[in-house]
Amino acid sequence: MPRRRRTGRHLDVAEEDFQEPRRQKRHYRNLDPDTKGLSLRHRNHFSLRSHQGFSFGHHIRRQPVARKWRTLRKRITATIACISTGFVGFVVGVYAGEVPRIQYQVIDPQHYIIQGNIYLFIGLAISTFFFWPLPLLHGRKPYTLAALALALPLQFPQAVLVSAVRVPSESSFRRGLLAARFFSGMALGFANINFITTLFDLFGASLQSSNPHQELVFIDDVRRQGGGMGIWLGIWSWCFIGSIALGFLAGAGIIAHLNPDWGFYLTVIVGACILILNILAPETRRSPYRRSFTEFIDGEEKIQRRIARGEVKLHLEADGPKWWGEEIWAGIRLNVKMIFQAGFFVLASYLGWTYAQIVLVIVLLGSLLSRDYTMRPQYVGAGVMAVGIGALLAVPLSKAGWFSRDRTKGPRTDSMTFERQVTWTSHMVRRIIFMLVLPLAGLAYTLSSPGSSVHWIAPIMFAGLIGFLSNLGIAECIGIIMETYDTSDLQPGANSRHRLASMASNVKRRRTNYSSFPRVTSGVFVAQTLGFLLAAGATGVGGVMTRTLSAQKATAITAGILLFITILLTIVLFRFKRVQVIPNHTFGTRKNSRKASQWNVEEDEYWKPVVIGNPSGKMRRMSILELGKLSRWTEIRKLNHLIREKSRET
After folding, report:
1. How large a percentage of the chain has pLDDT more than 70?
2. What residue intervals traverse the membrane (predicted)?
3. Sheet strands side by side (includes 3-4)
4. How far apart are alpha carbons 579 and 406 in whole angstroms?
């Protein structure tokens, strides 16, 4: 274990309790009158026996991490995070519902106005992909409040530009509207990166239920800290996609009787309420304890200095960033590493295309009800709301229960979860069933939307089915990312089942200075980025395809692409290969073992392998997704020295 030492005149504190020297001195000034004589200036040793009543715990109080909060406080914070997530979809939906009236207001025969949401999605993608590590440096609340405070004033220029009829020759109005839309997306992106990660801070990035499907229950498992996501995953998924239909309902209702500028004023009112809620919400990641450094002596008797901030760079390297740009660059590197895993890329593409299909179905269903069935705008919005209602019905199924991760009777050993027999209770079978039904529901919606020859209730019902299955698909994809890339129990000092000798030298020095889930967070935001980009393409290309081919053919093409991605995802999730995850010498030492010489690893009689759960065998069936370079099973194989030294270094 690294030995700590006192630097200068500051106290020797635990590594997880780093504080700035200024904060420490402030604590000394605020001591009781009988302890004001305490000083470390020009002293190597100080006795506290003469200072009665002095207590470090009394004078330096720490608030517990968010995963240890009271249940009511966690639920209130999670509710605010989900409502804030819904605000982003609400902004998208309001504009989509008002586009027909805005085109008449600005006189836009070239259909430039429909590009407003395209620029909004591009702005969301840029902020989400590049800047998600910043809240780990400075806290989540400053970025959330600043993003919402900047997004609200950007609605006023858009409202002014659509408040009156404009001359077609004046293109500056259209350019101003699109520019404000892009910067609104950029601002909302900085808020978006804090919503689902707030749920991670509260409940952890784990799907550990009472009887998890992949391994046995261990009370001391670090992944169980926080209680697990449970039904909050389904609630967040509805806020992510169902709020678009709710916003469309509001926008279509406004243009039925009011000027379209009221849609932007409504956005300001709702955004102001959400801003107040976020001001009142507690901060899940406080920043004062991540802005100092420490010096320690590693196993090689070398003095090392580590900056106690920058969790993403600390995940990739031994030292933290010197400035915020290095943390952003570390996040980009981690994103690229995640993308270049074949299994994860297919999973992220499926999640992104599901989001894009929801956006396209909402737009095309509104166009179908308006043109072919000549419905009034308020009834068009009510018909589109079927997508949100269908997604809402899927929320209870995200809880560990009948159609999800819980088991009525848990397995006796971990190896029983990989048996060859397949039953309807198999988690993989149920995933494949509803993932295959989703593109089939898209094809059914295509067949039911030829026009007025079919009753209008048919496309509405199938659109609701698409919303139902899309919510299940998005929630399940996020769950797969969490259970595949959550390595919190494998970090140095976090798991008592293995020792530091099991790890590479560059990993030993990290000492778990971070509390986030870098791989899970990166995977979620990469998938969201793909979803925003594909939604931008679906918004732009969907309008062109509708005018040239028809809405029915555009939906058919989208469902066909989703069916192809679903087949690829089924292949990626199928466990086809038996891989050794526990070494042959598990219950002994590695001394004089042939395995050590085979992998050219230095023999160590104190080395202890990593054993997860209660396995009855040393082989596991794995899928392409689980064989990725950053998956938790690959990490376990690295710790168990079952991957060559060259691979471990990379």
Report:
1. 67
2. 76-96, 116-136, 143-162, 182-203, 231-256, 262-281, 342-366, 378-397, 428-447, 453-474, 520-542, 554-574
3. 3-4, 293-297, 303-307
4. 26
d(CA 516, CA 488) in angstroms, rounded, equals 8
- Domain borders along the chain are 20-59, 66-287+332-502+515-573, 577-649
Q: Is residue 19 scored above 80 in pLDDT?
A: no
Query: Whose structure tokens read 């297919």?
Result: 346
Query: b/e for 34-48, b at 16 or more Cβ within 10 A?
Result: ebeeeebeeeeeeee
Give the closest residue to 476 by CA, choosing from 522, 429, 518: 429
> Is-contact 584 473, C-beta < 8 A?
no
CA separation for the pair 144, 134 (Å, rounded): 11
Instruction: Return the amino acid letter for 615.
Output: P
Residue with tokens 């081919």: 549
Distance from C-alpha of 312 to C-alpha of 320, rounded to nearest angstrom: 8
CB 350 within 8 A of CB 336: no
> Residues for the chain: how many in total?
650
Q: Which residues contact 406 (CB under 8 A, 6 or more apart)?
A: 209, 210, 211, 212, 400
Lowest-pLDDT range, 57-61, 147-151, 183-187, 326-330?
57-61
pLDDT in tens, 442-477: 888 888 888 788 888 989 999 999 999 999 889 888
Other Cβ atoms less than 10 A from the Cβ of 489: the count is: 22
How many other C-beta atoms lie within 10 A of the C-beta of residue 536?
23
Please state, as a whole number, how many other Cβ atoms lie within 10 Å of the Cβ of residue 582. 20
Class of domain 66-287+332-502+515-573: mainly alpha
The residue among 263 and 47 whose pLDDT is bigger is: 263
At residue 31, the pLDDT reads 42
- Per-residue pLDDT, averaged over 217-245, amounts to 82
Which residue from 44, 302, 276 is spatially nearest to 144, judged by alpha carbons? 276
Select the more confidently predicted residue: 649 or 335: 335
